[in-house]
Amino acid sequence: MLGTKARKVQLPLGERIKTRRKELGLTLQQLAARSELSAPFISQAERDLTTPSLVSLLALAKALEVDLSYFMQIPDNTNIVHRADNPRRIEVDSPVKYFDLSSQLENRQLDIILMRIPPGHEFPIDQRNGEDMLYLLEGELFATAGQTETILKAGDSMHFDSRLPHSARNISNREAVLLYVGTPSVFSAK
User: Fold this and answer.
1) Are strands 166-170 and 111-117 parallel, antiparallel or unpaired?
2) Cα(120)–Cα(52) distance, integer angstroms
3) Given 6, 70, 165, 181, which residue has the most CB atoms within 10 angstroms?
4) How confident is the model over 37-93, as pLDDT tens digits?
5) Which domains are delineated in the chain?
6) What are the C-alpha distances in Å from 52 to residues 34, 70, 76, 93?
7) Which residues does residue 54 pair with via DSSP β-bridges, in sequence order?
8) Omega into 118 within 30° of 0, i.e. cis?
């Protein structure tokens, strides 16, 4: 997959989507079919009128034949120790704040991400090969995985096959803090 670092820093997210779509000679409808997202949604994303979720960005990355990192700034730091006073924020247009706790190991197999999820935020339904583990540090989340629906409170966790349709929603009136561990890595180290 293509990972164009110079372009991703210079162009807004919408322009990166549009530029790559045009490089591949795709129409909005063709990209919609490839990504299983709607053409109006992609059009709004290209004009920066909406912010794609991480799940939507994964679908776009696959359809546009680029790494997810094409859409965001992921530190190239290969340190294996992370200090609390220097968090590595994953820069992506989202109300959720993502912090990368993984190291940039070559051929990394998993992601370890701390998420700060605002009240009311709902993740779209996701489904892909691999495993997910959710460990809630603060707040409450309504989480689903297949037929399982539960409310996670601080200290609760879920580990499941991510081929099951799954989602989560912050049902509280305060920020939820979630530790996510998942395979395979969607933030491939370079």
Assistant:
1) unpaired
2) 17
3) 70
4) 999 999 998 988 887 888 888 899 999 998 877 877 554 545 677 788 888 888 888
5) 5-71 (1.10.260.40), 89-183 (2.60.120.10)
6) 16, 14, 23, 8
7) none
8) no
